[in-house]
Every structure is written in C-alpha cells, then in structure tokens.
Write a structure and sequence with these properties.
The chain is of the alpha+beta class and 165 residues long. The protein has one domain (3-164): Pnp Oxidase, Chain A (Roll). The chain is 22% helix and 40% strand. A 7-stranded antiparallel β-sheet has the order 2-1-5-8-9-4-3.
C-alpha cells in the first residue's frame, strides 16, 4: 500500500473507531477479538502507523505480546450489540466469535484475521510496543486506572487499508 493511498483514507479511521471497532489478533492457535474505542493514526518511522492500546489485564494482551501483527475492523453496519459484547466479555471465558456469530476472513497481508463484515479494515505489522509507565502519566488521568491495569501501546505499520462492501 502506498503511503499516499493510506492518507487519503486516514480521516475515516478515527471517527470509525470512536463508534467501536474490533481489534483482532492471532498468534499460533490463539485468536481473540476485543472492542476498541480509541487509537492514534499517523506517520512514524516514515511509515503509516496505527497505535492501539490494550490493558495488561485483558486476555488480548497475552496474544498481542506474542503476535507479529494485528487487524482493526470498523463495521459500516449496525453491530452495536456485538461491539458491546466483545468489549464486556473476556476471551478467557467465552468464544466471542461463536457467541456473536462473527465470521473471520484471512488478512490480505498479515496472519491475523479480520472480522468479515462490511466496513473499513486495517492490517498492521507490529513495529513497536511499550508498557505505560504510571509515573509518566499526567496525574489527572491516573484515576482511569483504579485497578492499576495500565495499557500497553502497540504501534503497527499499516500494510493494508481497504473496504469490504
């Protein structure tokens, strides 16, 4: 994907994620999806990059730590119930794909699948990850972490960005 092609679509990503999106990651036989409602997109290391955050307490965290890539699927249709479910249930306890009848499709350029639904899909290869350091977080935000389950930040080079109709 050309960087210029990505930046033609970049303005759609954050508004789509704000509505709720699926972060999906696979490593070996482990695969999970979770809801994300915020991310960052931009240019870093001369590459188009999407940064997602996963709390260390989440089931997805373990998979993200081992995975070489991840995908973000931003549905264009009404999947509010599925987005809510995947944001409130843990993959440790339930199979979200089965419970929500979510189908996956192979990523075009990465190992992790996408959620096979109409919408915008982004595929990323992992380029950098970092655990948040609580002492570096502005004190006004520390209240967002009463359980001390801080996020880890995952930066992925965007290698594919496309719509499924």
């Amino acid at each position: 994907m050309e960087t210029k092609d990505f930046f033609a679509r970049a303005g759609e990503i954050i508004p789509s994620i704000e509505k709720g999106a699926f972060l999906t990651v696979q490593c070996a036989e482990m695969c999970n999806t979770m809801t994300i409602g915020w991310a960052m997109v931009g240019l870093c290391w001369r590459k188009p990059v999407l940064m997602v955050a996963v709390r260390n307490s989440r089931h997805t965290f373990k998979i993200m730590e081992a995975a070489p890539d991840f995908t973000v699927s931003m549905p264009s249709g009404n999947l509010r119930d599925e987005i809510f479910y995947c944001g409130t249930k843990s993959g440790r306890d339930v199979n979200k794909f089965e419970e929500c009848e979510l189908k996956t499709a192979a990523g075009r350029k990465v190992e992790s699948p996408i959620i096979d639904t109409p919408g915008l899909h982004v595929e990323c290869t992992m380029v950098y990850k970092n655990a948040m350091q609580p002492d570096n977080l502005a004190s006004r935000f520390r209240g967002l972490y009463p359980e001390k389950d801080y996020h880890s930040l995952y930066f992925g080079e965007i290698v594919a960005c496309y719509d499924i109709k």
